Amino acid sequence: MTDVQRTAIVITLATVLLVPAAAGFASHSGQPQPPQEEFVPIDQVPPEDQLPAAPLLIAAYAIVWVVVFGYLWSIWRRLSTVERELTDLSGRAGGGEQGT
């Protein structure tokens, strides 16, 4: 797999994960409410104005973990490529010295 293909996969995964989250935020952005003058307890706020924190927190952590594991996977793949190239190079260098 080439770097371009890997980048396309990462972008596709990020889009698949982020678009539903953005759609969830967009559904809450209706007409702007006038600012409140005083504190209102959560139990007195209408249900359509309440935003549950748990799904947003879970989505944020999921996105962060996917990005972290994707980055670590990318480093692992690049490191294995470098190790393979170093092995090939040392084999060529070792073979060239014996022939002279």
Describe, in short, the structure shown.
With 100 residues, the protein is mainly α. The chain has helices at 3-27, 53-99.
What is the rounded distance between the termini? 38 Å
Helix content: over 70%
Outline: rod-shaped
How many strand segments? Answer: 0
Compute the gyration radius: what is it? 26 Å
Main pleated-sheet profile: none
Structural class designation:
mainly alpha
Low-confidence stretches: none
Mean pLDDT: 80
Strand content: under 5%
Count of helical regions: 2
Order of helices and strands: HH
Features:
rod-shaped, 2 helices, mainly alpha, 100 residues
How is this structure best described in words?
There is one protein chain. The protein is built from two helices and no strands. It has helices at 3-27, 53-99. Helix 1 runs antiparallel to helix 2. It starts with a helix and ends with a helix. The model has no long low-confidence stretch (mean pLDDT 80).
